[in-house]
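Progress report, Aim 2. The chain analyzed during this reporting quarter is listed below.
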Amino acid sequence: MAKEATVKALPAHPDEVARLVLAMRESLTDSMVERLSVTGANALEVVDRLNDEATREAIHKALDRLTELNRIGALDTLFDLVTVMHGAKSAATDSMVERLWAFTEQMVNTLGSDNLSRLAEGASGAMEDAVHATADARPTGGILSAISLLSKPETQKSLMFLLKFAEGLQKRCCD
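Predicted structure tokens for the chain:
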């Protein structure tokens, strides 16, 4: 059997350690020392903020949520969404933003108008009335029933209304 070689660390000679420390000290420039000091101070400031209970809770919660997002595969989706939003923000010009705000303002004003409110209330009420009026009605069936229904003035008036409504909607939307 071959003997296993064991490597023993040689004790460093005190003169060698002193020379190494001296070499490190002499190789540091003033700007390097300043950067090390600033970095150390910043690191201590971050560690000090971790002593604040609210900050510590927030970091733990954020880490827990990041872990959960990663576990379910949503972390990639989140970063994809952020990338898309950043791209949209970068691509948006002042003119586009102004038009978007003008459109939003117009929509809010339109949706908040009294006329639209009355129209929605009237349409809702008419639908409720129609539901109640037809809930118990039983169709008699057959073509003669349909012809009889078409001969009634209120049916003809309703059909004319629907045709005029569709015609007006087409003119307003498509012309």
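Helices lie at 14-27, 30-49, 53-72, 74-91, 94-111, 114-135, 143-150, 153-174. DSSP finds eight helices and no strands in the chain. These observations will guide the mutagenesis work planned for the next reporting period.
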